């Protein structure tokens, strides 16, 4: 595999997290959708999820400078246990309050988990490892995306949602145990030398170069694009069928499409920019197919979106982490806190636009589709511009250093 021991342990935790989050991503959204078939309810749940996700990530980053990564993962697991206990036993008359509460606890779980993942990868990984790590992660995602929905659907059909919640409580318990095995990374010593991370968190101190400003622009565009893609691949699926097993089988079909994308990606030698452009083009075709609101076109839309997102996602993650690789640890933390909160804020903005959307047809939906396609293509353009400016800056710095050496 070519990964260090620390990265393999992070990969193990990533796999456990993917099982839990795959279930949450499909079946909690479906659980909410089934009650009223309301896009507003699903958007509200996702809005509170991402609203608290950013705060959870920031809390996790803060804890990493005072405690350790194990504490962050432990708190994420405890928050996950709370999610499934609330789903099992809490029933409120005010449905919107219940949706907001569930979304908030889910967001805290996600935020803490990805604080551990993202900061752990950034601090443990080397530049040459990032591509290998994310390639393995994508393969794991596809395996989980096939198996978890089908197994969960069978459990729900046999024992109801309550039975599936109990199963997930057991899996979150495994995550709690695995939290003791992850690298015990901490930035406490760095904090003692450099001071608290939040003292240099201002925008102009974190993004003080032209290249970093283009990186931040990529984060904004990516958040807007990701939220539309993530939400509507679910809504399109729910619109085709309410049958849990059919939904699971459709997700399995989408995963097969991702495996096909993986096969092509490994066989064809192209640069990262070319793959991202291909990914954007395929996803755009998928979005445009969704403007024809018939079940076969919605299935085609999702298949194309999954194909394109593979090419987009692997190269997006690799480029972002590589751009931060040379930064000192505390500065990496600041950039990642900005990245996560920017992505979450942009997702919330997209969800606010979707609140007014009555269904997946009509002029307003078409406008949002076109805007999302524009945001999507902006991501690789911003990343390419950021890389070009960073390379120019490094060349200039090397020339200055060489000149100073020659004069001496």
From TrEMBL:
InterPro entries: MFS_trans_sf. Keywords: Membrane, Transmembrane, Transmembrane helix. The chain crosses the membrane at residues 12-32, 44-64, 71-90, 96-115, 136-157, 163-183, 214-239, 245-263, 275-292, 298-316, 336-357, 363-383. It comes from the Bacteria. This is MFS transporter. It comes from Paenibacillus oceani. The lineage of its organism: Bacteria, Bacillati, Bacillota, Bacilli, Bacillales.
